Amino acid sequence: MRILKRLVTPLIAFVLLLGLLAGAGALMTPAWQVEPYQGRVRPQTSDTSIASSMGPTAPEGSYRTRESDIKVQLAPAVTIHAIVREPVGAPAGRPACLFIHGAGTGSAGKVYGDLASAMASAGITTLVPDKRLDTYTDFHRNYAAMADDYGRSLKVLRSWPGVDPAKTGLYAESEGTWVSSIMTARDPSLTFTILTSPPVYPGRDQMAMAVSSYLDIIGAPAGVRADIPKLLGMNFAPLGLQYADFDALPYWSKLTQPTLINFGVNDASMPVEQGARQILDQARQAGNRNVTVRYYPANHQMRVGSRLAKASLPLESHYTRNLEDWINAVAQGTKADGWTTPQLAGAQPQQTYAAPQHTSPGLVTSIGALAVLLATGPVLLLAALVGSLTLALASAIRRRKSQQTSPPRFGRGVAALLWAQAIASLLLLAAVLGYIAIIGAHALRLEALTTTQVRLWTGLKALALVTTALSALLPARAIKAWMTRRAPAGSRAEAIQAGAFHARPQATSAAKGRPALARGWGHWIVLTLAWLGALACLLVLAFWGAYTF
Fold first, then answer.
1. Contact between 265 and 347 (Cβ < 8 Å)
2. Secondary structure of 214-239 as H, E, C letters
3. Cα atoms found within 13 Å of the Cα of residue 151, Cβ hemisphere only
4. Is 80 helix (H, G, I), strand (E, B) or coil?
5. Under a CB-based contact definition with an 8 Å cutoff, are residues 255 and 288 in contact?
6. Minimal CA–CA distance to 79: which of 137, 145, 21, 133?
7. Is residue 390 classed as helix, strand or coil in its secondary structure?
8. Per residue in 47-71, pLDDT tens?
9. Does the pLDDT at position 548 exceed 90?
10. Minimum mean pLDDT among 244-248, 352-356, 397-401, 500-504: which range?
C-alpha cells in the first residue's frame, strides 16, 4: 500500500504531462484530411486510337526528319538552345508543336527527342527549347514569366519555313501544363493543347493527394499518413515556395482550344480521374466540348516498364501514333462532333485519394515555425550541457583553491534523472526523425515496407510513453517537495508515517545539506534548460503523432 501511495504523485504528473502532449498534438493537427476519391471515370473502350470523320492522316514514319539546332533570345542578354525537328518533303502549311518541360527536365537534348522525332515523321514540325534555368529553382518559380519565355519560342516556331501559324499548338507535361494553361488563356489563337499528366490543382493540394497515394502503396502506418495535413497545410513562404499555391483552374476556365488530356494509370502522383473531370468541366464552362481524354497503362511520363520515372524506359506503344493522329486531325479542322472514336478511352484508372480543396494549417503554421520547434529541444539541451560543464569546472576550481568539498547542488538522484530523461528524449527524437526519413525513402522508390518496419512505429510510440513517464518524475518530485514544505509540522510527520513522502531520503538530504531539487541560480538554470529541452523534444514527437492513438 505504501508503494502505491508513493506512486500517486508520479502517476498524476505523468497523466498531466501526457495530456499536455496529446493536446498539443491535437492542436497541431489541422481539421482537414486527405479523403479517398469517390468518383469514377469509366472509359468507353480500352482502345486508345484516335480518328476523325474527315479521313486518315499521315501516319508515323511517313517522312524522314531533319534536326536543326537554333538559339532563341529570351531577353537582351539571355539566349537558350533549342532543337527544331521537321519532316523532309512534307507540304507547306503543316502543323507545328512547341514542347514545354515538366519539373526536373531542362535540356532540349535530353528530353522529348523520341516524341518530337515521331511527330516530325508524321508531318508535324516540332520545337523543343531548353528550359530557362537562371530564373527557375527549387524554391522560386514564376509560371507567368515562364509562359512569356515559351511564348518567344512559340513565335520562332510559327515563323519556321513550311509551318502554318494557324495550325500551331502546345505539348506540355506535368508542371509544364501550368505554364501552358497560362499560354492558352492568353492566346486563344493557339490551335490545340496537349496536357500530359497534368497536376491540375495547386501544388500543395496535388502533393497531399500524391503523398497519401505513395504512403498507401508502401503500406505506411496510419499515424504517419496522418502527418500529411500538418506538413502540407503550412505556409511555405519562409522557403520561398509560393509557387506551391499556383492555381491553374482560372486559366483552364478559358480553355477554348481543342484539348487532348493524357494520363498514365500507373501514375500515383496525379489526379488521374478527378483532374480529368475538372478540366472537362472547366472547358465546358468556356463552351469547349472538343476535349479528348486517353488513359494508358503507363507511368507519369507515358513510359512502361516501371511506375517510377527511369532513364531509357520505352514510351507506351500507341502513344506517339495517337498524338500524331489527333494533332493532324485537329489541323484538318475536326470539331467536337467530328471524331469517330470516343472522347474518353483507354485503361481503367483507379485514383485512390482526392486532392483536397482546403489545406489550412494547424497550430504550427509555417515551415519556419516547424524548424524552430525542431531546433528548440536540441539547442536547450546543448545549452544545459554547456552550463553543466561550466558549473562543474567552476566547482573544481573552488575545491582546488579552498581544499574543501562543496555542498551538494542537486538533490539526491536529480542530476541522474535529469540527464536520463534528456538523453532519452533526444535519442527518441532522432529515432522518430530517422524513421520518417526511411518512410520517405521507401515512398520515393514505391518500395513496400516490411512488417517489422511497420511495427517499429508502434514500438516508437511505446518508447514515447516511457520517455514521457521518465520526464514526469522530476515535476513529481518538485510537487512532493512543495507539498512537504507547505504541510504543518504535525501533518508532515503524519504524512511521512503514512508513506505520502519519502521520510528517509528527506532526512538524509537534510543531514548532508542536500536540496530537494537544486541550490544556486546556476544549477537551477541547468535544471530548467535540461527539462524544457526534453519537453521540447517530446512536443516534436507530438507533432509527428507519437501521442495519437
1. yes
2. HHHHHCCCHHHHCCHHHHHCCECHHH
3. 16
4. strand
5. yes
6. 133
7. helix
8. 999 999 999 999 999 999 999 999 9
9. no
10. 500-504
The cell numbers describing 166, all together, are 494557324
CATH, domain 65-202+247-346, list 3.20.20.70, 3.40.50.1820, 3.40.50.2300, 1.10.530.10: 3.40.50.1820
pTM higher than 0.70, yes or no? yes
Cell of 77: 542578354
Q: What is the mean pLDDT of residues 190-198?
A: 98
**Element of type H or E holding 86:** strand 78-87
Question: Which of 428, 527, 523 lies closest to 475 in space, CA to CA?
Answer: 527
Within 10 A of 17 (CB to CB), how many other CB atoms are there? Answer: 18
Write out the DSSP string of 251-272.
Answer: HHTT--S-EEEEEETT-TTS-T
Which has the closest alpha carbon to 544: 327, 287, 223, 307? 223
Task: State how far the Cα of 81 lies from the Cα of 325, in Å rounded to an integer.
Answer: 29
Dist CA 533 CA 384 (whole Å): 8
Place of cell 510513453: 465
Domain boundaries, the chain: 2-29+363-543, 65-202+247-346
Q: Report residue 272: phi and psi, to 5°.
A: -65, -25
Name the maximum alpha-carbon separation found in the chain: 111
Mean pLDDT computed over 349-363: 93
d(CA 466, CA 421): 10
What is the pLDDT, as a whole number, of residue 510? 40
Cα separation, 372 vs 374, in Å, equals: 5
SS (H, E, C) 309-369: CCCCCCECCCHHHHHHHHHHHHHHCCCHHHECCCCEEECCCCCCECCCCCCCCCCCCEHHH
| CA dist., res. 102 & res. 196, Å (int) | 10
Each residue of 389-415: pLDDT tens digit? 998 888 888 777 776 666 777 888 888
